[in-house]
Write a structure and sequence with these properties.
Shape: globular
Radius of gyration: 18 Å
Distance between the termini: 49 Å
Helix content: 25-40%
Number of strands: 8
Oligomer: single chain
Structural class: alpha/beta
Number of helices: 10
Length: 267
């Protein structure tokens, strides 16, 4: 298999990655055969997975626009993945031209492609780091130089915490991020769930938990996702199915079985 020019030498092209599989769901081109094969396994049990990914991206757009309207001008996007059209820096810049964004991801292709795409954009930076190590992210010179911690920051954890197992204590490291932020900062989370009896969601989780999976998956209930927000003030409508978070058009009752939850909270 020929290695594309955009793929770093250290990347194993035979093993799928979460970022590249998600890129495939969104119709991107920065993925390998292994990623596509794995994605097709998920689509075999959860055919709507591509539309789920697109709805998740639509939630991200709504959340960022809302935050910009509240005067938030800084965004820390953790587990940002491979940039596609309509990513955070584009959404924020359309509302606030001088908005600053720091993308953080541990996938080498996500980092390399992000840096190439954003070259010359002084408002947006990319950090290679793991979101489960908050001290490494928060204390990194790039983070400290790019973001002003004396002013509110939006911390985004969109479609990523379901790849963090309970033993990594996600609620604790989420709290560490927010304790560093000043009042007025916000936390945005979207998270996979099998709550509601969606058989395809259970099967998809099982596939992600096999040996050749890019990452194990831990879907969580509405109450478990609420707990990830700690003591922060959840904004209306609280933790709900992704399409129900401040929709821009009417949604039908079928979304109550939607395999994803979302919420936004204020510090």
């Amino acid at each position: 298999m020929d290695r594309p020019a955009w793929a770093p030498d250290e990347v194993d092209m035979n093993r799928p990655s979460v970022a590249r599989v998600y890129d495939y769901y969104l119709g991107g081109s920065h993925n390998f055969e292994a990623d596509r094969k794995f994605a097709e396994q998920i689509l075999g049990v959860l055919p709507e997975m591509a539309s789920v990914a697109q709805a998740n991206r639509a939630f991200l757009r709504r959340a960022v626009r809302y935050l910009c309207a509240q005067g938030i001008t800084q965004f820390l996007d953790l587990g940002s993945g491979i940039p596609t059209a309509g990513n955070v820096h584009e959404i924020a810049a359309a509302e606030i031209p001088d908005a600053r964004v720091l993308y953080v991801d541990n996938d080498p292709i996500a980092v390399v492609h992000s840096r190439a795409l954003l070259e010359g954009d002084e408002r947006t930076e990319v950090l290679a780091a793991d979101l489960t190590e908050p001290s490494r992210v928060l204390d990194h010179p790039l983070t400290r130089s790019h973001l002003d911690f004396s002013r509110p920051i939006a911390v985004l954890m969109v479609s990523v915490l379901h790849f963090v197992p309970d033993e990594a204590r996600p609620a604790e490291f989420v709290r560490t991020y927010l304790e560093t932020m000043v009042p007025g900062s916000h936390l945005v989370i979207s998270h996979a769930t099998a709550e509601g009896g969606h058989a395809g969601a259970d099967e998809a989780q099982s596939i992600y938990n096999r040996d050749r999976s890019p990452n194990a998956m831990r879907m969580r209930s509405t109450e478990e996702v609420r707990e990830l927000f700690g003591g922060l003030q959840l904004l209306e409508p609280g933790v709900v199915r992704i399409p129900l978070w401040r929709p821009e058009s009417p949604v039908g009752p079928e979304v109550q079985r939607y395999p994803g939850l979302a919420g936004v909270a204020r510090r």
